Amino acid sequence: MSTSLNPELHSGGGFARGAAPATPSDTMADPWGVRRAETLLTTLEGILSARLVTTPLGEVSEIHVLATSSLQPKQVVRNIESALLAHLGLKVDHRRISVAQTAEVKPIAVVEREAVRKQAQQRSLLFENLAVSPGKRPHRITIAVTLTIGDRTETAEEESSDTPRSRVEAAAKATTAVLDRILEKNSLALEGAKIIDAFDREFAFVAVQGLGGRDTLVLTGSAEIKESPERAAIFAVLDACNRWTEVRRGS
User: Fold this and answer.
1) Which of 73, 145, 180, 206 is the most exposed place for a label (fewest CB within 10 A)?
2) Count: domains in the chain
3) β-strand 186-198 against 201-212: which pairing, if any?
């Protein structure tokens, strides 16, 4: 059995049983199959990253992996030997495999995703819930919108007549009211909300007036109607106000 990553160098000149043939583009971009083997190794339990070193002829001279402490190093080495043999027809001497273990380090992509998610949870205005209930009088409804801002959750209610246009305006107004509560030195007020047709789709479109000091600014936002017009109105207000609100919260 060959120790070359190039399938053509295997005995008999063909692929090992069970190995998927590489496409021409794969062969050109990765002639010795190094990246293919490294990707395979990172799918094994406990392996965070892998690096293969080859000779100019494609022979594997060294394999270095970073693994968690969930498995013993000897088991990691056996898993590597088995995976390379079963998937790529590649037999590697266990002495060429070195294993470094860590209990804390995570792949950089995972760390970045967690950091972005944590930052978003701390700063962003997140939609939590929309509730529609009967109003106090006939043909009236109450719309309640709940948002989370950092570690704070706020709900605002708005009563309106039970018509499509009024429901959209009530959802947008309740959303604006929640945002207005978190601003101590600034204020927001809904100017209007409506449903518009564009590009063979329906959208909720809103205009919100932002008041900060002596400055008055009209903020506009839109959201495609997918689940309900009321829900789209909420996202349209967030689309209009998210950045404006974050800047003023930070200041």
Assistant:
1) 73
2) 2
3) antiparallel
**Which domain does 220 fall in, by range?**
125-250
Cβ atoms of 101 and 69 closer than 8 Å: yes
Please indicate, yes or no, whether residues 58 and 172 belong to a single structural domain of this protein: no
What pLDDT does residue 143 have? 93
Backbone phi and psi for residue 175, each to the nearest 5 degrees, phi listed first: -65, -45
Instruction: Report the sign of the C-alpha dihedral through residues 187, 192, 198, 200, in that order.
Output: positive
Query: 126 near 148, Cβ under 8 Å?
Result: yes
The packing angle between helices 164-181 and 229-250, to 10°, is: 20
CATH of residue 244's domain is: 3.30.160.270
Lowest mean per-residue pLDDT among 6-10, 163-167, 195-199, 224-228: 6-10
CATH classification of the domain holding 90: 3.30.300
The contacts of residue 240 (CB under 8 Å, 6+ apart) are 206, 207, 208, 219, 220, 221
Query: Tokens 């801002």 identify what position?
Result: 149
* Residue found under tokens 């590489």: 22
Give the DSSP H or E segment for 212: strand 201-212
C-alpha 251, offset from chain centre: 28
Q: Is the pTM of this model over 0.70?
A: no
Tokens representing 241? 């106000």
Q: Are residues 155 and 224 in the same domain?
A: yes
